[in-house]
Design a protein that fits this description.
The structure is a single chain. With 83 residues, the chain is α+β, with helices and mostly antiparallel strands. It is built from two helices and five strands, in the order βαβββαβ. It has helices at residues 17-24, 56-68; strands at residues 6-14, 28-29, 32-41, 44-51, 78-82. The protein has a five-stranded antiparallel β-sheet with strand order 2-3-4-1-5, with helices on one face. A hairpin with a 2-residue loop joins strand 2 (28-29) and strand 3.
Length: 83
């Protein structure tokens, strides 16, 4: 993984948080390194993300696309907030 990565906190809000954590935790490709940190509420999963993407909207879109492309993601309602 390249150096000079930007660290971001990402919150994914969904009723299927466990599935999203299973999908995203440990992901290391495409300029992304994702680690699950904790749930702040039953619906909000917090991730530490290291990325080469400095645009928060593009990072949010990249994570949304990852979730939507999963077997359960197409029918899932969720939000992604990048801080």
């Amino acid at each position: 993984m390249a150096e000079n990565l930007i660290e971001r906190k990402v919150i994914v809000s969904t009723s299927m948080g466990k599935k999203v954590v299973e999908l995203l935790d440990g992901y290391e490709e495409d300029g992304l390194k994702i680690r699950y940190l904790k749930n702040t509420t039953p619906l909000n999963a917090v991730f530490q993300v290291f990325t080469n993407e400095d645009d928060k909207e593009k990072l949010s879109r990249k994570i949304k696309d990852m979730i939507k492309s999963s077997s359960f993601g197409a029918a899932l309602y969720f939000t992604v907030n990048v801080e």
